[in-house]
Design brief:
The protein has 111 residues and is an all-alpha fold. It contains four helices and no strands. 66% of the residues lie in helices and 0% in strands. The chain is elongated.
Length: 111
């Protein structure tokens, strides 16, 4: 069978019965909706799990940061229980002063 014979045997869409076109298009729409819904559910479940894990980490961050591993369980220079030498705490008033000074410098440069 040549391509010319195949072209002559095929019908155009205008000559195809309406009910068969409707069935094929309905099947395509139903399959695409099912695929979209299943993908949406999977993504939704994974996002909810990610959000829950993030919430747990945020709620337990202070407790996790206070975990201390005894030195008998590791070798090396990593000391998770040692206190940093610099215990300088920055309070809100000094942050505001720094921001105010930065604002003054920027305003002077602009004007």
């Amino acid at each position: 069978m040549s391509t010319k014979d195949a072209h002559e045997e095929s019908r155009s869409l205008a000559l195809t019965p309406t009910w068969s076109v409707a069935i094929v298009l309905t099947a395509l729409v139903v399959v695409s909706l099912l695929v979209e819904r299943s993908i949406h559910r999977l993504v939704n479940v994974k996002l909810m799990l990610l959000g829950f894990i993030s919430l747990l980490l945020a709620a337990t961050a202070n407790g996790i940061s206070n975990i201390c591993i005894p030195s008998k369980f590791y070798n090396g220079v990593f000391h998770p229980c040692s206190k940093p030498d610099n215990n300088h705490q920055v309070d809100d008033s000094s942050k505001r002063k720094l921001l105010y000074e930065l604002h003054k410098k920027v305003c002077k440069k602009v004007s």
